[in-house]
Amino acid sequence: MGSGGREHALVRALAASPARPRLVCAPGNAGIAADAACFLVKADDVAGLVELARREGAGFVVVGPEVPLVLGLADRLAEAGIPVYGPSAAGARLEASKTYTKQLLLKYGIPTAEAGLFDETAPAIQYLRSRPVPIVVKADGLAAGKGVVVASTRAEAEAAVVDMIERGRFGSGGRQVLIEDCLVGEETSILVVVSGRDYVILPTSQDHKRIGDGDTGPNTGGMGAYSPAEVVTPELLSEIERSIVRPSVEAIASEGIAFRGTLFVGIMLTADGAKVLEFNTRFGDPETQAVLPRLATDLLGLLWAAATGGLAGQRLDVRPEHAICVVVSAKGYPDAYPSGDAIEIPAALPPGVTILHAGTARNPAGRLVTSGGRVLGVTATGGSLKAAAASAYAACDSIRFASKYYRRDIGARQLRRL
């Protein structure tokens, strides 16, 4: 269930299962429609999605985006007797409320930044003036990956507070704000398949959130990712598991939440060690597009084991290749951007390249057109990150639509290290 590049990546990976499943997607997009039967039921139509699953005789449901999980889709499917991969609304609250997650992290002593919570402007600004800059202002609720302002000055931070609390930039969920000390370092994304107290850590990746090259401009839902993130050495990953992953899984279970789904742990690698930036409760986008091509393990079997309580003892086999995903967006994203631009994708692509659709549709004439801010995910695999990036960017250059825009430095940090 879902309609973005993450869901197209999931569809492709599930279709490759030896179980040879029949796949149905709602609502899907123009690219997913080539790989699965699509039904135009919106992601926030919980009753409609449950009815679709019943009508199609679904034996298993995999939920992509966060909104239906927060609205209780997994709970309703479970009540209907349909196995589902994705946490209950209680588990999805870890993404729906940054405040709730921060309180859980502090309660269980899991490394994270110092923070204050506010729903009124005056005390928020008073707190800001007592903290060093840069500083981070976060909308408490869901904001499609855009409700975070990393302010380099107090004036910028104060403007963000006013924008969220008084002007309601991110709706009611943004009228409560979390103000955090800014953690400095490199980010990494740890995707964990969880079933109660059992878990499997997927290959590491690194996302690029800012719209512009050199990590400039506003935050987006993600402009690209690569895997593995070699800054996370085996020794560091073991430490992250010991200090963050295992305590987080245990903390969630100790709160009475039977979590069965993906725990996405956003981590900053600081000079004082790894610290949690955020939890999401679904696969990351675009991390998924870079991680799944590296799995040799049957994804369908893995997710089924998590959903049905059989994850203990599961092995994860990972291919040695590197993978990269470059997001091709409509110019103007994450703010105003055009839609309806005709898209041309060459029939012949460089070896190892896959085009995953995100914001695409068919116009009345059947032409492929843009229909969202993030339009395509160009994913490539190769024997090295350099080789994978060269293939991905050659494909990006060959794609045509009027408002095409993409960052040209995905993976640059790792390539510089190499």
**CATH H-level superfamily of the largest domain:** ATP-grasp fold, B domain
What Rg, in angstroms, do the CA atoms define? 20 Å
- Tell me, briefly, the overall form: globular
CATH architecture of the largest domain: 2-Layer Sandwich
Count of DSSP E strands?
22
Structural class: alpha+beta
Number of domains in the coordinates? Answer: 4
Poorly predicted spans: none
Helix content: 25-40%
Q: Which sheet architecture does the biggest sheet show?
A: 6 strands, antiparallel
User: Distance between termini?
Assistant: 38 Å
By CATH reckoning, the class of the largest domain would read: Alpha Beta
Strand content: 25-35%
The whole-number mean of residue pLDDT values reads 94
- The CATH topology annotation of the largest domain reads as D-amino Acid Aminotransferase, Chain A, domain 1
Number of helices: 13
Could you provide a short overview of the structure?
It contains 13 helices and 22 strands.
Description:
- The chain is an alpha+beta fold.
- The chain has 4 domains: 5-91, 3-Layer(aba) Sandwich (Rossmann fold), CATH 3.40.50; 120-175, Dna Ligase, domain 1, CATH 3.30.1490; 186-307, D-amino Acid Aminotransferase, Chain A, domain 1 (2-Layer Sandwich), CATH 3.30.470; 322-417, Alpha-Beta Complex (Glycinamide Ribonucleotide Synthetase, Chain A, domain 4), CATH 3.90.600.10.
- 30% of the residues lie in helices and 26% in strands.
- It has 13 helices and 22 strands.
- 48% of the residues are buried.
